[in-house]
């Protein structure tokens, strides 16, 4: 006898469609449930209103806010989906648990950029097994960095250059108080007004 936690997600979806008809064909209702599951992540809480508005933005038609609310409650009631509920305040929040079959790796813009740079510049220096074990993270980073919201992270690779280790060069120590605002401005496409002084100069220059 299988426990509720061992029931496949596909079986639970069939049970939901049988128990909670919503005056929509089963095929359409299944798509609605999948659309809603696609809006939940393991990072951060999503309210019913935010899920509903996101569906509208995606062009999903015929879905009311009440329908989304009922679907979230039904999905939450099925242990196999592993959906967590934050009921400490109203509106309630929903997110996927770490063991949810619908959980996807979610990277922040900084994490996606770091992994993208790491793969581009370290792939020939890493053992093949190590590279293979990290491939899913690299793939996710590539997919996320293609999105319009990560344009700055995507453009960063064209703003910096890597100096090969084989080339001799004198290391330059740059204070963090200087490096941080310069790199932040470069990342954000902002213009900096700089006042600097060359090592052998007697006066200051501006740029």
Short summary of the structure?
By secondary structure, the protein is mainly alpha-helical. 47% of the residues lie in helices and 6% in strands. It has 2 domains: 4-96, Orthogonal Bundle (Arc Repressor Mutant, subunit A); 109-196, no CATH class.
Task: Explain what you see.
This protein is mainly alpha-helical and 207 residues long. Helix 3 (48-57) crosses helix 4 (65-77) and helix 5 packs across helix 7 (135-145). The N and C termini lie far apart (74 Å). A hairpin with an 8-residue loop joins strand 3 and strand 4 (205-206). The chain has nine helices and four strands, in the order ααααββαααααββ. Strands 1-2 form a two-stranded antiparallel sheet. It has a two-stranded antiparallel sheet with strand order 3-4. It has helices spanning 9-19, 26-39, 48-57, 65-77, 109-122, 128-133, 135-145, 151-156, 176-187, and strands at residues 83-86, 93-96, 195-196, 205-206. The radius of gyration is 25 Å and the shape is elongated. It folds into two domains: 4-96, Arc Repressor Mutant, subunit A (Orthogonal Bundle); 109-196, no CATH class. The longest helix is centred in the N-terminal third of the chain and has 14 residues, at 26-39.
- Output the CATH class name of the largest domain: Mainly Alpha
Helix share, percent: 40-55%
Q: Percent of residues in beta strands?
A: 5-15%
The global form is elongated
Briefly note the CATH topology name of the largest domain: Arc Repressor Mutant, subunit A
Average of pLDDT:
77
End-to-end C-alpha gap: 74 Å
């Amino acid at each position: 006898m299988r426990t509720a936690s061992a029931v496949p997600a596909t079986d639970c979806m069939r049970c939901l469609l049988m128990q909670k008809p919503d005056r929509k064909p089963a095929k359409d209702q299944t798509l609605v449930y999948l659309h809603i599951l696609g809006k939940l992540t393991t990072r951060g809480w999503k309210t019913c209103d935010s899920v509903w508005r996101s569906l509208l933005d995606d062009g999903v038609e015929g879905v009311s806010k009440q329908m989304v609310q009922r679907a979230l409650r039904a999905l939450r009631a099925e242990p196999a989906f592993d959906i967590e509920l934050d009921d400490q305040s109203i509106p309630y929040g929903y997110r996927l648990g770490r063991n949810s079959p619908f959980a996807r790796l979610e990277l922040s813009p900084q994490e996606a950029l770091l992994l993208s740079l790491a793969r581009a510049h370290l792939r020939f220096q890493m053992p093949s097994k190590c590279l293979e074990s990290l491939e899913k993270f690299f793939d996710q980073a590539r997919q996320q960095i293609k999105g319009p919201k990560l344009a700055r992270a995507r453009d960063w690779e064209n703003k910096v250059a890597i100096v090969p280790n084989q080339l001799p060069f004198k290391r330059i120590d740059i204070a963090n108080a200087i490096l941080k605002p310069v790199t932040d401005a470069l990342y954000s496409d902002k213009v900096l007004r700089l006042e600097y002084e060359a090592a052998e100069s007697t006066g200051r220059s501006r740029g």
